[in-house]
Write a structure and sequence with these properties.
Blueprint: E1 4-7, E2 27-30, E3 33-35, E4 41-43, H1 48-57, E5 61-67, H2 70-79, E6 88-92, H3 97-110, E7 120-124, H4 130-136, E8 141-144, H5 155-163
Parallel strand pairs: 1-5, 1-7, 5-6, 7-8
Antiparallel strand pairs: 2-3, 3-4
The structure holds magnesium ion (MG).
Length: 167
């Protein structure tokens, strides 16, 4: 049974492809949109906030594994007021998601929460990241955003399916 859901950020949670380009200060345009000082804009995809809140309400542990400068990621997550919805945000200046997922597993263990790999779902818009996850963290369920999930609300269907072991 899945206990932890980990999301990529760029092009998975929001429409911008690289928030490391964002320049302070950031300003909020609407609840789900921000703009940086050079005119870069970012908007959350539909149902992201709602799905995250519902996942949290249902007791899932929520994480982020994003290839970005950590200071930029925390600026953006704070500006969008999403930080408090996630239990753990790992943002690193390299693309190796399997290392970030390992960090998440280790950090949860430090907090006294032991999760098995097959209790983790990882959602990313770039399938290229899955190879190393399958290799080094077998059992983690990798979901390709916009292919296996067309909308963030679809995560609930996938979680139901995984409960039935129908993957
Ligand atoms: Mg991405």
């Amino acid at each position: 049974m899945i206990k932890v859901v980990v999301f990529d950020a760029d092009k998975t949670l929001w429409d911008h492809y690289n928030i490391s380009e964002f320049v302070e200060p950031l300003k909020k345009i609407s609840e789900d949109e921000i703009e940086d000082s050079s005119g870069n804009k970012l908007k959350l995809f539909p149902n992201v906030r709602e799905s995250l809140k519902e996942l949290k309400r249902r007791g899932y542990i929520l994480g982020v594994a994003t290839w970005n400068l950590p200071e930029k990621a925390s600026l953006v997550f704070n500006a969008l007021e999403l930080s408090q919805l996630f239990d753990i945000i790992i943002s690193r200046p390299f693309p190796f998601k399997f290392l970030m997922l390992t960090e998440i597993i280790n950090e949860l263990r430090k907090r006294g929460v032991n999760v098995r790999r097959d209790e983790i779902m990882f959602i990313d818009d770039r399938r290229i990241h899955f190879g190393n996850v399958w290799l080094y963290l077998p059992g983690v369920k990798c979901i390709e955003m916009w292919k296996e999930m067309q909308d963030h609300i679809d995560v609930f269907k996938l979680l139901e399916r995984s409960q039935l072991n129908d993957f």
